[in-house]
Amino acid sequence: MRGSARLADLLGTRDSHPLPRKILAAGTGLAVLYLVLLTGQRALEAYRINQEVDAVRRDIDALRVRNIDLQAELSSGRLDEDVERIARDELGMVKPGDQPVVLVWPDGNTRRGAEPPAARSSPEPSWRTWLRLFFD
User: Fold this and answer.
1) Is residue 40 in a domain?
2) How many domains does the chain divide into?
3) 116 secondary structure, DSSP code
4) Where are the beta strands (DSSP E) in 25-64?
5) Per-position DSSP letters for 62-114, written without gaps between them
6) Does 59 reside within a domain?
7) pLDDT the model gives residue 83
8) Are residues 120 and 131 in contact, defined by beta-carbon separation less than 8 angstroms?
9) C-alpha span between 24 and 27 (Å, rounded)
């Protein structure tokens, strides 16, 4: 009984010290509320990070597919016919002895890359431009 009497003296009776017990209960409630909010915040952060990881994984998968497509295109682009097609269609080059055809569109412009490099005129000297500017 001696130990339980000491405990009763330390804790007091219900009526002897109501204020410290209320403060202790409020403090405990606030601590529990803080821990619940902190746990919820961490869970939300983990969910967002998992969503970002999933998005990055999808991007990686798409890039792998694109990489495979580009590797296939690169290996098929080594054929002589493909090189010639790209040189003629995209770069506007001609074979020696061919007659280049320059298409002029209704607005007066030529399509970019359609004019072969040999048929392009060299730029006029600047002195001639100035001469035409003042005397023509």
Assistant:
1) yes
2) 1
3) -
4) none
5) HHHHHHHHHHHHHHHTTSHHHHHHHHHHTT----TT------B-TTSPBPTTT
6) yes
7) 77
8) no
9) 5
**pTM for this entry:** 0.40
Residue type, 22: K
Q: Which secondary structure element, helix H or strand E, spans residue 21, and what is its range?
A: helix 18-76
Domain carrying residue 22:
2-76
- pLDDT digit string, tens, across residues 16-25: 566 788 899 9
pLDDT averaged over the chain?
79
3-state helix, strand, coil in the chain (%, to 5): 70, 0, 30
| Residue where the block lists tokens 């060299």 | 122
Q: Is residue 8 part of a domain?
A: yes
Closest CA to 78 of 68, 89, 86: 86
- CA 125 to chain centroid, in Å, comes to 47
**How confident is the model over 68-77, as pLDDT tens digits?**
998 887 777 5
Q: Domain for residue 33, yes or no?
A: yes
The CA distance from 104 to 88, in Å, is 17
